[in-house]
Design goal:
about 375 residues, mainly beta, Porin, 2 helices, about 5% helix
Length: about 375
């Protein structure tokens, strides 16, 4: 592991030196330094955690013509977490990609972020990322991919991607992909009335340890702004293996938002998601219903408040989250308060903002340079 960490640091320094004074106009070095303190109380015990994280980012840009350019990004995720029982520290690649952009197209190669869909909280189309509105850092893992996006003059878009070399789980995945077998998919987005809709698909080979199987999923989503915002996401997934208890998984989400004329504007978002698993197409052998409500209020130019609630209809549990943020030019202070009952629902557990259960708090200080 130490060899890999040193390897990442050496690459970072080589790029910085090679693109130094002679390419000063094309090179940009930015970074995000953050510290956190977390405490959670559950089952008469306190969980305490303090952490430090630094994400340096190097970007270069080279213009080939007026509307054609190539840019690169190389960034690391270095973190140190300490709790009562152990210390966890690591340096990982966060992004390493090259992009060719024109007036209507974009081609990206490398470790990159791929995300799409109109939903904010409960996201059936969270196929490749784990973005969470509760996380003040906005972190998510990347995937190794080659992606191409083309925008037509009628505001429609086509997006094609191929992934390879990804051995970790992503999105809602419970099992990882086979690292040595490619996965691919695409998305076509097109205008519909005053909004837009899109079809997406993706297929991969799943590594189930003792065996492998083909997983394929298709989706339909859309968004419209008609007095209020309205959107939906729906996904049908087929697991091609007789060794699994369920062959079909389905997810459907409906959401809406509106900004009320209260003070500086009270923005309210509501979403409901239904998911099921079955041996038959559109069956309901197992199902889960989750509702989410998010309220945002900009109190001043520097201070903002956000509240979020999840409710699981099957076991009737309520999850509560409150966040206060104060933003300066380069600094951001975030205070989170939460109450998370125990849950096996990925939407409620896979987040960076509060990796704990019970009653708790988290203080995060972020410096961007």
């Amino acid at each position: 592991m130490k060899t890999k960490k040193s390897y990442y640091i050496i690459i970072f320094l080589i790029i910085l030196i090679a693109c130094g004074p002679s390419h000063a106009g094309d090179l940009e070095l930015r970074g995000q330094l953050s510290s956190l303190g977390l405490g959670a109380y559950q089952s008469n015990e306190w969980t305490k955690l303090i952490g430090l994280r630094y994400i340096p980012q190097l970007t270069t840009t080279e213009y080939l013509a007026d509307e054609i350019f190539i840019d690169t990004e190389f960034s690391l995720n270095a973190f140190l977490n300490y709790d009562i029982d152990e210390t966890n520290e690591n340096i990982k690649l966060y992004r390493i990609k090259i992009r060719l952009a024109t007036a209507q197209s974009e081609t990206r190669l490398g470790l990159q972020k791929i995300n799409f869909g109109p939903a904010f909280i409960l996201r059936p189309l969270r196929w490749f990322d784990r973005l969470d509105p509760r996380d003040p850092l906005g972190l998510t893992e990347g995937v190794y991919a080659l992606s191409f996006k083309y925008s037509f003059l009628n505001n429609s878009q086509i997006w094609i991607w191929g992934l390879y070399g990804n051995k970790e789980t992503k999105g809602y995945d419970i099992l990882p992909s086979v690292k040595t077998k490619p996965e691919f998919g695409g998305r076509y987005q097109f205008p519909v009335f005053e909004g837009e809709s899109a079809f997406s698909f993706h297929t991969r080979t799943v590594n189930a340890s003792l065996f492998e199987y083909r997983e394929s999923k298709v989706s339909l989503d859309g968004r419209w702004d008609i007095q209020v915002g309205l959107w939906f996401e729906s996904v049908i997934q087929k697991n091609d293996s007789e060794l699994l208890p369920f062959e079909w998984n389905n997810m459907a989400m409906l959401g809406t938002d509106y900004t009320f004329d209260v003070g500086n504007g009270l923005h309210v978002i509501g979403e409901h998601m239904y998911s099921s698993a079955s041996k038959e197409f559109l069956g309901t052998d197992f199902e889960v219903n989750v509702s989410a409500l998010m309220i945002n209020y900009p109190y001043t130019l520097m201070d903002s408040f956000m509240g979020m609630m999840f409710f699981t209809w099957d076991n009737r549990q309520l999850y509560k989250f409150i966040q206060w943020q104060r933003a300066y030019d380069d600094f951001l202070i975030s205070l989170n308060l939460f109450h998370y009952p125990e849950s096996n629902i990925p939407t409620l557990n896979n987040n960076n903002s509060a990796p704990a259960q019970g009653y708790g708090f988290q203080v995060t200080v972020i410096y961007n340079h």
